[in-house]
UniProtKB/TrEMBL annotation:
Cofactor: Mg(2+)
Pfam families the record matches: polyprenyl_synt
Keyword Transferase part of the UniProt annotation: yes
Organism, as annotated: Protaetiibacter larvae
Keyword flag Metal-binding: yes
Protein name: Polyprenyl synthetase family protein
């Protein structure tokens, strides 16, 4: 995993350089803009960098890197340096895009915490209160966070363009840009479908609940978290149709498993590890596959209680624990674990004979275990 560690360090440095430049740019406008950059730094200082890692190993699985046990054609030294600079900027852009998505997601979910710290809109709300400004603090917090999310989207695009300008393969750069555009459209569509499901589920046929929950997983998370970064990296390296198809065949089932693990953590996760309150998805009313399966397995009286309490932001610890036990006792949690394991197997099988670099396949297989066995 040494290559992954070096990549994460280089991405962090590239993000820091970009934020330094933007801080200087905004300082010329007004010192009052400092909180925007400070909050961006806070968001981008942590995280597991999974999207950056998948972009890098997607690129590495296609690019010719000289390795004794990997019989792929090696890139020339100069081309390798330029290609590495390119993929680092692209990977950094994906992390900045992710930060923007988190800001907007936390506003829509009315989340108080992100990684154990106040969500961006809560941080701006606290700033308003501490300074004694006029008007509703929560309105200011929401508006400021929306603008921060928009800024991060713009900064992500700038970083992505920097990466494409450095790419030795011009056709690959164009293909990577198309993948990036598709990813942004799909994740926004998935976010809308997620929000829609929370508000419209009562008016939908019961038989549609699970297929609709699965569609949200695919478009809100699976493609954006795993499949798209892999495809972006592979395209940037000039991957063939067969190579990109192999990356997608690995990435989509793994992305589904990734989000199912996230859904489990949203209900059962340890707040000391996740940085979010226990049962946060229950308070937010997330209509996940886990909840859909539980509703299928519960007796009608338990379903009515679940439907009545799910989405109530005032749920206390006792009520959350009761719902957790109800979902667990239904057998839904065990079934989701089996679905996760199945999707990981499908993903690993897709790597077996894929036309990709051997060492990169090993790293991708290791990443598959890491992203689906995590506790936060």
């Amino acid at each position: 995993m040494a290559g992954s560690t070096r990549l994460v360090d280089r991405v962090a440095a590239r993000i820091d350089d970009a934020l330094q430049a933007h801080q200087a740019e905004l300082a010329q406008v007004s010192p009052d803009l400092d909180p925007l950059v400070a909050q961006a730094r806070e968001l981008l200082a942590g995280g597991k960098r999974f999207r950056a890692l998948f972009a890098y190993w997607g690129w590495r699985s296609v690019a010719g890197i000289p390795e004794a046990h990997d019989p792929m054609p090696a890139l020339e030294a100069d081309s390798l340096d330029a290609a590495l600079d390119s993929v680092v900027s692209v990977a950094a852009a994906l992390e900045v895009f992710h930060a923007a998505a988190l800001v907007h997601d936390d506003i829509m979910d009315r989340s108080d915490l992100r990684r154990g710290r106040p969500a961006a809109h809560r941080a701006f709300e606290a700033l308003h209160r501490s300074e004694g400004w006029t008007g509703p603090a929560d309105d200011f917090g929401t508006s400021a966070a929306l603008l921060l999310g928009d800024l991060l989207l713009a900064w992500s695009d700038e970083l992505f363009d920097t990466g494409l300008a450095d790419a030795p393969d011009r056709a690959g750069a164009g293909a990577a840009r198309a993948e990036f555009a598709r990813m942004r459209t799909e994740v926004t569509a998935g976010q809308y479908l997620d929000m829609l499901e929370e508000h419209s589920w009562r008016s939908r046929p019961e038989t549609e609940a699970l297929p609709r929950a699965h569609r949200v997983i695919v478009y809100k998370s699976a493609k954006y978290s795993v499949e798209a970064p892999l495809a972006i990296g592979g395209a940037l390296a000039g991957g063939s149709l067969a190579q990109l198809a192999a990356l997608r065949a690995f990435g989509l089932p793994l992305g589904v498993a990734f989000q199912l693990r996230d859904d489990m953590l949203g209900v059962f996760g340890d707040p000391a590890v996740t940085g979010k309150p226990s049962g946060d998805d229950l308070r937010e009313g997330k209509r996940t596959v886990l909840i859909g399966l539980a509703r299928q397995k519960m007796p009608p009286t338990a379903v009515r209680v679940l439907d009545e309490l799910l989405g109530d932001p005032s749920l206390d610890e006792r009520q959350v624990q009761m719902l957790q036990n109800t979902v667990r006792d239904s057998g839904a949690a065990d079934q989701v674990e089996r679905i996760i394991a199945h999707n990981v197997r499908v993903a690993r099988e897709a790597l077996a004979d894929a036309p990709l670099g051997g060492s990169a396949r090993e790293e991708l297989a290791a990443l598959a275990e890491r992203v689906t066995r995590r506790e936060s």
